[in-house]
Amino acid sequence: MNDQTQESPPEDNHRARTARQAPVSPIWLVPIVALLIGAWLAYQHYASRGPLITLTTESADGIEAGKTLIKTRSVDIGSVEKLSLSEDLAQVIIQARMKPEAEPLLVDDTSFWVVRPRVGRDGISGLGTVLSGAYIQLEPGQSHEEARNFTISDQPPVAPPGAKGLHLNLITQAASSLSVGDPVTFQGLSVGRIEEADFDVTSREMHHRVFIRSPYDELVTTNTRFWTSTGIDLSLGSEGIQFQMASFETIINGGVTFGVPEGMPPGELASQNSTYELFGNSAEAQEGTFDLYLKYVLLFEDSVRGLSRGAPVEFRGIRIGTVESVPWEFNAPQPQGRDRLAIPVLIHLEPQRLDDSGNIDLAEWKKRFDGLFNAGLRASLKSGSLLTGALFVDVTFDEQRAGTYQAETFADESVFPTTSGGLAQIQGQVTALLDKLNHLEVEPILANLDRNLATSEEMLNQINQLTAELRDLLGDEDTRKLPATLNNTLVDLQATLKGISPQSNAYQELTTTLHEVRRLIRDLQPAARKISDDPRSLIFEGPKADDPMPRAPNQRRQP
Fold it and tell me: How high is the mean pLDDT in each 10-residue block of the chain (559 residues)?
């Protein structure tokens, strides 16, 4: 029995060998092919993806992951995939996937900015994003170096990369209200824009970067001066009233204008990234061309009210310098020999105004002025405008002072000799008189006068009204008939009075009637008394009265 259990039947062994040698089923080919196709599609998707770039911005306002697109020239070239904060939480890091065809655009100077509705100096822009949502605009650069990290700008660039034109730097010491996008004009024509505006805390200077597009960049030379333009320039100075008006855009937004000062050669064309000083106005820009000057101090014992910085220094109507500071170093000690306190005024004598040859020898000019001082050359204050009260420095010869010049210094600067102007004395007297008039209490007097005039006017109006009414009354026809009517009335009254006189019949009849009335009243008195005592007597007959009994003499009536 054990032998039967250990030996297997021949048929069972044949079936086992047949099962082990069976071929693989074709059904397994389906998952294998699907796996290969999936792997191929995944490879194709990965290979067709564009580059991943990183964008940095201060705020992600309007940007959403999976929705915000990146466009250039209104063509979609990428989308935002992820938003996150930087480690210091100061910036927003944007991960964006670009399309493969956009890879050549990702160079070092490519610029990005967010397009959203804006109300700016150039009007309203980005209204199309109200319904579609904000998107990121890409402006291709001109560099050949690839880049994957970029910064999103707050504003669209004024000049796109590669634009033909001139980039310049402007520096000013004064605060300026200029901002990015303000126009740069030349004789009223807009030729460029301000690209950047930054304040340097260290140097306390305002730095502006401007772009002047081609072909207007050829207008900028080495002798060009830049100044701010407010659109409307109104100034009151010693030279009178000056009014200038620029373009409408400049009036609304302000801006920068430039030009070559009068009397200067154009100069050579400016190079890229040149630096210029930005002046406050055209007058300062004109004055800025005179960079060679002699410094002198004027010591005035008269009032300098009305004299300000920038006032001209003239010689017989020709400007030869500029007032630089009023007053200047006021606390410095006065020169010896002066018994009165003088107000120091610093001026610049500018030989370039008289000699435009370019060969200016300041030492020679100083020597020349010293000789003119000995010949009687003196400075005084004169009025430049009676309307504004502005003063200027007038230089002329005083023959009575010839040969009396003595050199003096004030705070290590040479003193220009001065003389008192007769106009200053007259102005002082006029000013004192005006001050006295200003202290008079004129307003109460004028107020009382106004009230008296008003009362008088009201009284005259009433008199005129009364006169008109009296004239109308006297001119009425009924008023004219009134005397005749009154006379007739008096005649009738007199006749009436005659009719009731004691001798008249009417008077006699009236008297007789009154006597009869009096007798009737007397007769009615007993009846009235009876009715008063017994009202029933009017209806019922009263009780019969007893016959009256005679009364004894001296007998009193019983009660």
Answer: 48 53 67 77 68 90 88 90 90 91 89 77 58 84 88 79 85 77 86 87 88 91 86 54 53 75 82 89 76 88 86 89 90 82 90 77 88 89 79 88 86 88 62 75 77 85 86 77 80 74 72 82 77 69 58 54
Residue 311 φ then ψ, to 5°: -65, 150
Residue recorded with tokens 């220094």: 313
User: How remote is the C-alpha of 294 from its chain's centroid?
Assistant: 42
Cα-based angle 264, 266, 272 (whole degrees, multiple of 5): 130
Q: Are strands 343-349 and 318-325 parallel, antiparallel or unpaired?
A: antiparallel
Kindly report the backbone phi and psi dihedral angles of residue 448, in degrees, each rounded to the nearest multiple of 5, phi listed first: -65, -40
Half-sphere exposure of residue 234: CA atoms within 13 angstroms, side-chain side: 3
Q: How far is CA 96 from CA 51, 80, 101, 145, in A?
A: 9, 4, 15, 20
Paired tokens of 417? 């000799």
List, in order, residues 6 or more apart from 37 with CB less than 8 Å away: none
pLDDT at 546: 57
**Other residues' Cβ atoms within 10 Å of the Cβ of residue 425:** 12
Instruction: Identify the CA nearest to 78 among candidates 56, 99, 64, 47.
Output: 99
CA distance to 198, 210, 377, per residue, from 170 (Å): 11, 8, 41
Of 165, 161, 160, 274, the residue nearest 214 (C-alpha): 165
Residue 287 exposure: Cα atoms within 13 Å on the Cβ side: 19
Which backbone phi and psi does 433 adopt, to 5 degrees?
A: -65, -40
Q: What is the pTM of this model?
A: 0.49
Q: What number of other Cβ atoms are within 10 A of residue 60's Cβ? A: 20
Whether the Cβ atoms of residue 244 and residue 208 lie closer than 8 Å to each other = no
Closest alpha carbon to 393 in 349, 356, 446: 349
